[in-house]
């Protein structure tokens, strides 16, 4: 039989443990909220320029979000179009040549043409862009970035951005601006 004088301290000790657990839980919650706040302050272009200095975004999640049957529409209202021998930007209305399969490749994406099966969009160090019949290697892989306005930007293996020129030219450029933002539209 226990001594009545010792029973209350045990109960009090139990309450202290619960309070400590609640305080610890609240501390973890505060840390999580601070991390979310800090992450919300980082812009995608800033992430791209300081990937080596900061924690990388979850590219696997971004590549999954960007994936599927997509059309890439530039801010100029043109679509990324795969012709027989080249990739261009073409005005609306969209055609089957504007349809792309955007596929996840270990946190990066590849753009596979719809009208030329087995061809993938690739980028060269000189800034030129075309597509080739090959299984995707580094030249065909792009890092996806979701921008604050819902557009997407894609960085090549060379660190350059997929760009839609107002003149209809597709290339990659070193600095990201508005011409490097694309809307990803679904197609069936």
TrEMBL record:
Organism the protein comes from: Panagrellus redivivus
GO process annotations (BP): actin filament polymerization
A Gene Ontology molecular function term of the record: actin filament binding
Listed name of the protein: Eukaryotic translation initiation factor 2A
PANTHER family attached to this UniProt entry: HISACTOPHILIN-1-RELATED (PTHR33351), IG-LIKE DOMAIN-CONTAINING PROTEIN-RELATED (PTHR33351:SF1)
CDD domains named among the record's database cross-references: beta-trefoil_FSCN-like
Residue numbers spanned by region Disordered: 1-25
Annotated GO CC locations: actin cytoskeleton
InterPro entries: Actin-crosslinking (IPR008999), Hisactophilin (IPR052883)
């Amino acid at each position: 039989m226990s001594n009545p004088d010792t029973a209350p301290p045990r109960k009090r000790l139990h309450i202290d443990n619960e309070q400590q657990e609640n305080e610890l839980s609240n501390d973890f919650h505060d840390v999580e909220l601070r991390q979310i706040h800090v992450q919300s302050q980082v812009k995608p272009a800033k992430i791209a320029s300081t990937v080596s200095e900061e924690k990388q975004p979850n590219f696997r999640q971004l590549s999954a979000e960007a994936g599927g049957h997509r059309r890439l529409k530039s801010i100029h209202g043109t679509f990324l179009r795969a012709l027989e021998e080249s990739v261009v930007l073409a005005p609306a209305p969209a055609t089957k040549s504007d349809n792309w399969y955007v596929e996840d490749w270990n946190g990066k994406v590849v753009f596979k043409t719809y009208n030329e099966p087995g061809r993938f969009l690739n980028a060269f160090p000189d800034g030129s862009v075309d597509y080739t019949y090959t299984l995707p290697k580094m030249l065909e892989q792009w890092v996806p970035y979701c921008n604050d306005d819902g557009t997407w930007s894609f960085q090549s293996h060379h660190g350059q951005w997929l760009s839609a020129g107002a003149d209809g030219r597709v290339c990659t450029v070193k600095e990201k601006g508005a011409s490097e933002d694309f809307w990803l539209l679904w197609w069936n």
